[in-house]
Write a structure and sequence with these properties.
ECF_substrate-spec-like; 2 strands; mainly alpha; transmembrane; Arp2/3 complex 21 kDa subunit ARPC3; membrane; globular; 190 residues; 3% strand; transmembrane helix
Length: 190
């Protein structure tokens, strides 16, 4: 009887630590995405909606590849939407939440397809490319409703492509480096 109670207490303690670890991990990833988006950015002069270029996508792809699709979604959706709200782009927050969240989820899902665990450059690359295409489509569709035009949102596509390319070029190697370390090699799980 005493052993059963001790086992139950240990199990409850492990569950609580696991939930706290998950909450802290997701919070840190959200913060990293926000910081890289807020502090490392510039605006393209030729885009009608501003064409904001930032390093947030680097962290989005790292989160999705190293920590998995669910954590990647949370980091991208909340981190990027928070940036929109606090930096004068609040009208884009919902579009950003959906588009960036889906982008990360797709990138992370492909990175973990067929047991690859985020360690395959090919699957990670395919995930970033497919996720990036979904993000571009998401912004285009959202801006059609926002701007009331099928043509005006086309001006923002070059900036979105640039963001994906930057995220790919910097995020893919960084994620690959992190996955080599034992601590990060098995982060996916929750």
């Amino acid at each position: 009887m005493a052993q059963e109670k001790l086992f139950e207490q240990n199990q409850n303690s492990t569950i609580k630590r696991s939930k706290i670890f998950e909450m802290v991990t997701c919070s840190l990833l959200i913060a990293l995405v926000f910081v890289f988006t807020f502090f490392v950015q510039f605006t393209l002069p030729f885009a009608s909606g501003g064409g904001l270029i930032h390093m947030g996508n680097v962290m989005v792809f790292v989160a999705a590849i190293v920590f998995g699709p669910r954590r990647g979604f949370i980091a991208a959706a909340f981190g990027m939407a928070l940036f929109d709200v606090v930096s004068g782009w609040a009208s884009y927050a919902l579009i950003t939440f959906i588009s960036k969240g889906l982008m990360a989820y797709i990138a992370g899902t492909l990175a973990y397809t067929a047991g690859k665990q985020g360690k395959s450059v090919l699957f990670n690359s395919l995930g970033i490319i497919l996720g990036g295409l979904v993000m571009i489509a998401g912004y285009y569709i959202g801006e059609i409703f926002m701007l009331g035009s099928f043509v005006a949102p086309l001006a923002n596509i070059p900036g979105n492509i640039t963001q994906i390319v930057i995220g790919f070029v910097l995020g893919l190697p960084l994620a690959s480096i992190l996955k080599r370390y034992k601590y990060f090699s098995n982060m996916y799980g929750a």
